[in-house]
Amino acid sequence: MPRPRSEKARQAVLAAMRRALAAGGYGAVTIEGLAAEAEVSKQTIYRWWKSKAAILGEALLDGSLPGADVSLPMTDDLRTDLRAWFSAASAALGKPEVVALARALIAVTATDPELGDALNRRFADPIVEWITQRVERARDAGDVRADADAAVIADQFVAMVSYAALLGRPLSEERVDATVDVLLRGIASGR
Amino acid sequence: MPRPRSEKARQAVLAAMRRALAAGGYGAVTIEGLAAEAEVSKQTIYRWWKSKAAILGEALLDGSLPGADVSLPMTDDLRTDLRAWFSAASAALGKPEVVALARALIAVTATDPELGDALNRRFADPIVEWITQRVERARDAGDVRADADAAVIADQFVAMVSYAALLGRPLSEERVDATVDVLLRGIASGR
Amino acid sequence: MPRPRSEKARQAVLAAMRRALAAGGYGAVTIEGLAAEAEVSKQTIYRWWKSKAAILGEALLDGSLPGADVSLPMTDDLRTDLRAWFSAASAALGKPEVVALARALIAVTATDPELGDALNRRFADPIVEWITQRVERARDAGDVRADADAAVIADQFVAMVSYAALLGRPLSEERVDATVDVLLRGIASGR
Amino acid sequence: MPRPRSEKARQAVLAAMRRALAAGGYGAVTIEGLAAEAEVSKQTIYRWWKSKAAILGEALLDGSLPGADVSLPMTDDLRTDLRAWFSAASAALGKPEVVALARALIAVTATDPELGDALNRRFADPIVEWITQRVERARDAGDVRADADAAVIADQFVAMVSYAALLGRPLSEERVDATVDVLLRGIASGR
DNA sequence: GGATAATCGAGACGGTACGTCGAGTCTTTCC
DNA sequence: GGAAAGACTCGACGTACCGTCTCGATTATCC
After folding, report:
1. Contact D141, D131 (CB under 8 A)
2. Does residue D52 approach strand E to less than 7 Å at its CB?
3. Nearest chain B alpha carbon to A189
4. Is the same domain home to C179 and C141?
5. Residue closest to E14, CA→C1'?
6. Contact B27 A106 (CB under 8 A)
7. Is C67 within the bounds of a domain?
8. Which of B43, B150, D106, A81 has its CA nearest to residue C103?
9. What pLDDT, in 10s, does the model give residues A14-33?
10. Residue C69 falls inside a structural domain
């Protein structure tokens, strides 16, 4: 019966959060600032989100956030696929707004592990899933050792992206190649 | 002639920081709280440290912090050495206070990249250095490919420890073994 | 054609106002609270009343408010009549809800002089009128000096009741008698 | 050992309160506004005063507030003395700032009876005391009935001033005279 | 007996002020 | 001159009400 929630206000807050992240990092975001920037009352923010981190979560999940649009290819060549994704992800870390977003995610996780865990799962799981499937497909094709642990490979890639984002150090193309080489050789079949 | 800096006050502040981290995480630490806990005036803190992060840095560097005392062995067997260190580091993440410390370090890095970078270098560099030397020694011994990139290996290990700490997920012994296997096979020599 | 105003809602709001006054005084009354207490929407209140003070006014004027039901007798004896009324009014100040109501009236007057003036007129004027007539009748009967100023007497009584209500100090019977004595003697005829 | 309370800040707040009262009445005073006007932080206000009313109290008690400087004469003639004071008090109600102050006092009393009582005592008691003494002195001189109740006279004067202030109606000189006449005749000795 | 039009409840909205907390600076006294 | 104590300004916190604004649901008329 009451007036329905204003989608406009919601979007304005999420947009303000993204802008604020890019401008000063997660630590510099204030509810007061978001409210002013979004031209929304504080009450409206507190009505719909439990915490600053919750806004971040929704801002990350909502709409197309920059850097998460890297494709997860599925060709016949494992090396090509992995290199394509890893290279794109590394390159995205060259964009300041992507680094800001990633760091915000990390800061939240380090501060509020529960929420952070949920958010990380939301972002990491599809990638882990994809890598796992890719590796298993390669194993079925005989390109990879029978006892290769796909999860280890997946985690190594994700951990490396996370670490590079945290330190704000995009990986060079050479480094991307070297990393893919090492990890693939680590699970390569005898011949 | 002037009165020298009170070492007692300094230690009290650092101790208070470590206790506060364990108690509520880095985000819950306040200068005011540290001052009260350490029975030190706020002025004394501001006189000697530039920021909360600086106190954290000194608290981490100073004295024996739990979890950083993992040994860096140098036997003849690369696998044994790496497994020993990686296993000890992973096990340390089972202790809540170690996770709290590591997360504080990550939170600071995500919030204040400059300081974070310095702190991370301080902690990661010795390990990277050690792994690099160990790998290079193995290469000289012919246990490892001539073109093995020691830096890649080192970073993979460090990134994985950082990521596990962030998510608060200690690695199982099986996972430790699997990870070491993959990475070593990735640089193993032909024979 | 349209739906008429809900008398039920109106009464509920006025009742809620009276209850709220008794519970916490005029300063503690909120529109939001009234709406909740009366199970009425805020909009309904704003549709029909211009201000909190307006609700108070209507609550005071509407129905039998406690303490305003003191009779205004018109016997042949001025002293008896005045004492009867003044005594009853003083006694009413012994009831907390009467004091609350009176204080609310005073608070509104001190805050919003215009409205307060209207409300005070509404309550005081009949009494002033009555006293004036009573005194003038006594003057015609020769019980009172020819130059007696009825308005002064009336105001003295009203001012005293107002002041006693403000301070929440009901007057004792002795004090009532003494006051009536002084004021009547002040206008008594020579013989 | 710590820095002592800033008298400057205290005075600035009290002055701001007096200005705010004159500007918009007690109801329009906000702590936020006082802080801004006094160029003092809210914290400083909350540190030293428990409520808005407490600031008002101190503002009223502190220094020479306008309208409270009416003299309390002690000549040989009771009528002259009372008329002098009552006339001066009535005249003061012609000044808007005096009315604002008085109304603020009344509003506080109607809202916070406990504090109001204390404040009213502080202001009314000296006057009641003075009138009482003046009347008793006249009684000793035989100018007044032996059974005259000085307290009744004192309260009548004070109540009338309070009521006139509440309604913002200064008393005319004629009304002042008439009132003094009635009350004095009310306690006059037989001759 | 429907249509219709203002009412009602509910509650979201942009605001203002609340009273609290901590940040970082300043001032005083003691050692 | 270092240090404890704590007052100072400043700004954000999260809450409570304000007065306005939609909503869908509910009546009393009037056709």
Report:
1. no
2. yes
3. B185
4. yes
5. A41
6. no
7. no
8. D106
9. 999 999 998 988 889 999 99
10. no
